[in-house]
Here is the input.
Amino acid sequence: MNICGTRLEGKYYDGELPIARSAELVFSNHEVALTSVDTTLTYALHKLRVSPRAGRADRFIALSDGGQYQCADQPILDRLPQEVGSEGPVAWLEDRISVAVASVVIIICVLLFGYFYGLPVAAESMVKRIPIETEVSLGSHVLTWFDDNQWFNPSHIDQDQQDSILGEFSKLHQGLSMSSHIKLQFRDSEFIGPNAFALPGGTIVITDQMIEKAESEEEVLAVLAHEIGHAERRHSMRQILQSSFVGLAAATITADAASLSAAVTGLPVILAQTKYSRNFETEADEFAFDLLKRHNIPTEAFASLMERLDKGSERLKKLSFISTHPITSERIKRARESSKQANGLAREKAYH
Here is the structure.
């Protein structure tokens, strides 16, 4: 494109007064002449600088004497020296809505992939670096908070029954990597109903209502085996880390430190309402089934109790074990399949 003789109409600012004057630019091979009612100025082309394109807005030409020339966007302006060297690709992207939409979609996909896959991997790696003493202290703090805020009351379960459960519970976790930190606490709680959950550090809480819902000690141990799985795999701490990442990201994006502080302060409530991921539940289930079979406890006990809990009232469903540990037909089916496999192996051994 030959710019010689090209004319651009616009407005001229002399750089001293904020007053625009109608003017015209006339281009030659190496110079440009600016002409207004009372002024004629000449500038070298290579000393001009053109502002970046911003949609359909006017563009500005910075003049070598400090003045500016404002005019409508024209193709000729792309032939002049630019303020920003990458203006070409940027302008190309800005003019293509489809590219912008595709970019947003890609960003969302990357964030979702990071949340569902990258975040769990990062949390699993980080939890290995956290001293178990720190995790135990956190779990103790959370249990104290529950007691002080009257979510829990002292257990009313007969001491002999508690001792019996504790004895079998100790056998269940004996020899595990977390065994020295795994503890069982009995609590009464009409508020959260039939429930059992593992706190950070290995403390497992079971409510009187859960024990009363069970029809045998084996069913109680089946639930506890599941919670031992959560404790052994440190799921509570991994869940906290994943939630903290989200809170930290939100606080960083919104520059609102109060939101992060509120999340940390409300940690006990967050833990009580946390729904473990499907992967965590499956991992704890499989751990429990293997643990129960090693101690000759039928996994059918787990399935039977889960079905009974699932048929409870809607109020209990919102607060109980099935709220924080969602029951699915697949989980019950896996428990029964595990029981059938164990029975089959037992019959095979007896035959031989």
The two ends are 94 Å apart (CA to CA). Residues 48 and 337 are 79 Å apart (CA to CA). The longest strand covers residues 7-13.
